[in-house]
Specification:
This protein has three helices and seven strands. It is of the alpha+beta class and 127 residues long. It has one domain: Nuclear Transport Factor 2, Chain: A (Roll). Strands 1, 2, 3, 4, 5, 6 and 7 form a seven-stranded mixed beta sheet that branches. The longest helix has 18 residues. It is globular, with a radius of gyration of 13 Å.
């Protein structure tokens, strides 16, 4: 059974990291080994194990250093199956030095209270 409450906590902490520029509380809920999947940029690819965790943390640290700041809406949809919880939401703010407004979906996999999987999909709707 999927742990929806822990996935929601992870979503909220990830959103908080984007808003404040401090991803440490989110990083604290990552498992030592995890799957990380991202579509573009320097962290593009599918990574697993320790490398998955390292890529997830590096992505967070890159956003902190770049001054990227986004505000997430309340999820419009929350979908779950036996292994994942996906949150669909709007985000807007500053990304890569530019105004950003987009529709996003992030799926978390959770096991024993820790995030063991992260998949993100997004589209820039123009600011």
């Amino acid at each position: 059974m999927t742990d929806i409450a822990t996935a929601r906590e992870a979503f909220d902490l990830f959103a908080q990291g984007w808003t404040t520029g401090n991803f440490d509380p989110y990083i604290a809920v990552l498992a030592e080994e995890m799957m990380f999947w991202f579509l573009m940029g320097t962290h593009r690819g599918k990574f697993s194990g320790l490398e998955g965790r390292q890529q997830m943390i590096a992505k967070c640290r890159d956003h902190e250093a770049a001054g990227d700041r986004l505000t997430f809406s309340e999820p419009q949809y929350v979908l779950n199956d036996d292994t994942s919880v996906m949150f669909e939401f709007e985000a807007e703010g500053l990304y890569a030095g530019q105004s950003y407004k987009g529709h996003n979906a992030i799926a978390f996999e959770v096991n024993h209270g820790k995030v063991v999987g992260f998949r993100e999909y997004f589209g820039n709707l123009g600011a």
